[in-house]
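Predict structure. Input: DNA topoisomerase 3, 729 residues.
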Amino acid sequence: MSQNKTLVLAEKPSVGKDIARVLKCKNGQNGYLENDRYIVTWALGHLVSLADPEAYGEKYQNWNMESLPMLPEHMKLTVLKGSGKQYKIVSSLLGRSEVKDIVIATDAGREGELVARWILDKAHCHKPIRRLWISSVTDKAISEGFKNLKPGTEFNNLYRAAQCRAEGDWLVGLNITRALTVKYNAQLSAGRVQSATLNMIVEREEAIKNFKPKPYYNILAKTPQFTLTWQGQHGKNINSKETAEKILQKMKGKSAVIKDISKKPKKSTSPGLYDLTELQRDANRLFGMSPKETLNIMQRLYESHKILTYPRTDSKYLTQDIVPTLSERLKTISIGPYKAAVSEILKLGIHTNKSFVDDRKVSDHHAIIPTEQRVILANLSTDERKIYDLVIKRFLSVFLPPYEYLQTTVTADIAGEALTAKGREIITLGYKKVYENQSEEDDDEDNEDQQLPSLKKGNALAVSQISLKELETKPPARFTEATLLSAMENPQKVVKVDAKAAKTLGETGGIGTVATRADIIEKLYKMFVIEKKGNSLYPTSKGKQLIDLVPADLKSPLMTAKWERQLELISKGKSDPEAFIADIKTYTTELVNDVKNSNEKFVHDNKSGQKCPECGKNLLEVKGKYGMMLVCQDRTCGYRENVSKNTNVRCPECHVKLEIRGKGDGALYFCKRCGFREKVSSFNKKHFDGNRKNSKREAQNYMRKMKKENQEAVNNPFAEALAKLKESE
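Output follows.
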């Protein structure tokens, strides 16, 4: 008689193999490992997703307005394309008679729950479930997790919330996308998060376009050792040039007399631990990494290197049960550049407080911190090292004392007018020791601080120059990927909403989630509705027109915030999932009717003058994230070709980054600024031949990395349905 076994279902092969090693499953088979007690298998991200509209009948085979809205009574599941082989293996294992129960070991979160439950549903598996809920995949965390498995029933509501989110996005996203695409015969995509995000970019561009700068003035008085700034009752800015010139003339030729010197001790504490969004912001600001790049790097540091905890977290806090592990985590990172700080912390003693340890501020996962696994820095790529360094410095900083300094303010008088200068004297660097030699934004830094000499009240100072500084009010800055993440997290700070709506947005964590925001930004690039110039994001003509065509309610961040609030209530068992889906169906019908009844127009204003070689229609010239493309304007054709590709290679004449134009042997490096051009083959031979071995190795490493990241058919449960929308125009 065969022995009863437990089947463990992980989200990815790498994690499955780590779990199998800890559980001593050494009998390796195709798609799983086992021993006499456990069978460990894995998904490939999502193996199962919601079926395409075509699965619900012939009337949805062709895109037409008459078949909308699509409102299936029961949503069907399907095996994702390319995942059939592994699904069959998992399904077969689930059906084995000796398998008596299941341990869900997918990522500990809403999407991870969905990955596993959809597989079980599709396989009609109703065996008892337990849940592995861990925040790192070290051997120790896995071992401890298996000693503390939770009943699967505890996560039923989390699954229902995930299911509602996926079905809601299917209903709204696919219906509104089909309606817009059919109505305007253009490849137009919309959705609750992407439309609200695009709308913020478009509104910011309109605000910049309509901004009218106003002049204002500052008066500066230069002494031999420092500079004083005029101060009025309402600050240093003077709106009238005439008033400013009168004050300037009054002070000319006069000396300055020191009236007051005040010294105030000030301190600033560590900025706290990282959640994913803030880490993505800093990586973009400091290193120019896109949010998607940062998430991919974090995933490798968590999953492959096992040196950082779970990345998809929205918390900057730890729970009390983590506190006993802090000493071991600190000792693990006591290497190289971090050794001195760790020694100081251990010498002072590990002290925690509510600024970073608070159970109430942690939902699914705590902040990103190092694991107890020893790190070998030499094994990390340059980019992995940068992200790891950010996380470790934040982790060290919370244990170190505050940064303390004396803020000196000198007040002087020139002809009866008050002027000030500020200086700073550092008392102790505190947590800033870990940031020495690194650029760091700090909200309480005053960029007017200067080195002040030793002064006494009543000192008279010669004034060598008094000048009028003419300035202009500035329009709001365009979004970068970093500031867009902030806007998605706190849309109430950039979108005009009433106090009640602002409260809702603040409480629900904005639009999107830490796990999806990077993908949303990438999707906006792929839809060609935004483009990047330098670090700034601009809406394209297509993006501006799309926002005019999308129903108003779908563009509001408030709608998706209310949605997220409902999902949160469902996950806690405090709201009815069936009522949620019924409301979404009603809402979907209203959105489709809005599009049907619209009198708006869509105009292709980027026609290239070239004809599509497949259908003869005009090709459109579009700017992708990585270069220029020509794509067919007919959504059913889908023809596309690359025109140019951005590179990191610098022009030898003017040092601007070059483009590659053309294909194969005819490919040229081209400079948009000075017109430099040279064949790629001859340029590379001339400039890179001496380092060919290193270049080849770097290229191979890069291709392996890209291949690994491209295998992330991971967290997009209905990617196939949306993939039918060829990414054009």
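Confidence is low (pLDDT under 50) at residues 440-447, 692-696, 705-729.
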